[in-house]
Amino acid sequence: MMDHVRVTRKVRDTPTVFSLYFNWNRDVEPGQFVMVWVPGHSEVPMSLSQTGKEKCLTIKMYGDTTKAMDALEPGDFIYIRGPYGKPFSRVKGKTLLIGGGSGMASLRPMINEDSTGILAARGKEELLFENEFHDGKAICVTEDGSRGIKGIITAGIDSVDLSGFSMIYVCGPERMLYAVYKNIQGKTENVEFSLERSMKCGIGLCDSCSVDGFEICRDGPTFNMKQVSEMEEFGRTRLDRSGKRIYF
Ligand code: FES
Question: Pocket of ligand 1, candidates 217, 219, 223, 240: which has the most ligand atoms within 8 Å of its Cβ, to mutate?
Answer without folding.
Answer: 217
